[in-house]
Every structure is written in C-alpha cells, then in structure tokens.
Design goal:
globular; 13 strands; about 25% helix; tt1808, chain A; five-stranded mixed sheet
C-alpha cells in the first residue's frame, strides 16, 4: 500500500513557496499554489540516482550539458509547477538561474511505492509536454527495469522501450553518450521477491 502524500491546505504564491523552500528542512514540489512534501527516499533510490550521475557527468560536461541530482528544482510550468526530479540534465547554455532548471533535456525519476503513480502519470504528462525534453526514464529500484521514453525527431511524440538486462545499454544520442544498466544498478542488492 502506498503512502499518502500530504498536500498543503492553503494556496501559496510562488514567492511564498521560494521563501519556504529557502528555510525548510524538507523539499516541496509546487503545483498551482499547493505545496507537496517530497517523501524520504530509500538507500537504493539514492544510490541508483548517484550511479546515474557518476556514470555520465564528466562526458555530459564535455558535450555541453550539466547534470543535477534531486535537490535542484525543475520549472515545468512558469509560476505554476515546480518539480524535483531525481536527476535532470540541461544544456549548459540554457541555465540562467542558480536554483532552477528551465529547459531539461533528460529527466530521471527513480520509482518508489509512494511516488510511482505520480511519476508514471501526472509527471509523465508534465515532463513530456516540455519542448526541450528528449528523454524520460523511470528507473525501478526493486528490480533491474528501466522504462525509457525518447522523443521522435521533430515531433511531440515519444517512443517507449524498456530495458531489463544488466548487459543492455541505453543510447542517448542527443547527449552524445549512452549508459549501461550495469552502471546504473552498480552495488544495488535487490530484495528477494516471489515469482509470479
């Protein structure tokens, strides 16, 4: 059973949201005036996101991109919607603000029981509506499985593929690189699960 995420009862302005975030010990996403506390993450989720960053950061920097972890806000809709993806990549020349990414090229969410439905539905629609976004990855933390969405060239449409073998590599041609599942899941121990 997934945890319920508490949402603020009152409506906050963007300015109030920024002020709260500057002094809060927990992160909040912002959606049309509502503050949504970010749930704590598991060790696996944190390590998977760090593995992704470690595997690609140096090459992306050389290719003109910057990559950030889950503490950097991504503006999904100006003054209405701010998210904290687990990993976000943006072209270096589009970064104009030290606190927010405005034109993500790649977004990664590590799925958890409490966020999977939002990541798969609401956030999927919001992220893929961004003209700059080329890749959306949803990474499972309880098994080697990645749901991969890639924008078709010169289109609003995204193609779907999934990867479930550690020997597989995900190509990211817009970023000039690729990443293997072996690198993403390095050091991760999955709990035993019952066969279906």
């Amino acid at each position: 059973m997934s945890e319920l995420v508490e949402v603020s009862a009152r409506i906050y302005s963007v300015e109030e949201y920024f002020e709260i975030e500057n002094h809060s010990e927990i992160r909040h996403e912002y959606e049309d005036g509502l503050l949504i506390p970010m749930p704590g993450e598991t060790l696996n989720a944190n390590e998977i996101a760090q593995n992704f960053i470690t595997a690609l950061q140096r090459i992306l920097r050389k290719n003109g991109f910057r990559m950030f972890g889950h503490d950097i806000r991504t503006i999904v809709h100006e003054r209405r919607l701010y998210r904290y993806p687990d990993v976000v990549v943006s072209a270096s020349n589009t970064i104009r603000d030290i606190r927010n990414v405005t034109e993500p090229v790649l977004v990664v969410e590590v799925l958890s029981e409490s966020t999977e439905d939002i990541d798969r539905n609401k956030k999927f629609r919001q992220y893929t509506a961004l003209p700059s976004l080329q890749y959306y990855l949803m990474i499972h933390q309880d098994m080697a499985l990645i749901e991969f969405y890639q924008r078709k060239e010169n289109s609003k449409t995204f193609e779907f593929n999934f990867f479930d073998r550690l020997s597989e590599t995900i190509d990211l041609p817009v970023l000039g690189t690729s990443i293997s599942l072996e690198d993403i899941y390095e050091g991760i121990e999955f709990e035993e699960s019952e066969s279906i």
